[in-house]
Amino acid sequence: METIQIEILNPKVKKLLKDLVSLNLISIKKETSFLDTIAAIRETNALLPSLDEIAFEVKKVRSKK
To answer: How far does CA 62 lie from the centroid of its chain?
Structure first.
């Protein structure tokens, strides 16, 4: 399997890509940002600290220096 990133210049190409998906020739996955990934991880583990808690700890450590 090879993964490539393409830029769609013509909206008609989306239909072609969807046709390829329906033929099971390709799959299309939504690109996720770093924060989306963090949010997904947090959903699976409620014991992880929140972003505010992490920021507070970082601020606390920096103030000691």
So the answer is: 30
Q: Mean pLDDT, to the nearest integer, of 12-39?
A: 89
Highest-scoring range by mean pLDDT, 33-37, 41-45, 48-52, 55-59: 55-59
Compute and round to an integer the Cα radius of gyration of the chain. 20
Cβ contact 28:17 at 8 Å: yes
Select from 27, 30, 37, 31 the least CA-distant residue to 2.
27
* Ramachandran class of 45: left when φ > 0, alpha when ψ lies in -120 to 50, beta otherwise: beta
d(CA 51, CA 54): 5
Alpha carbon distance, N-terminus to C-terminus of the chain: 49
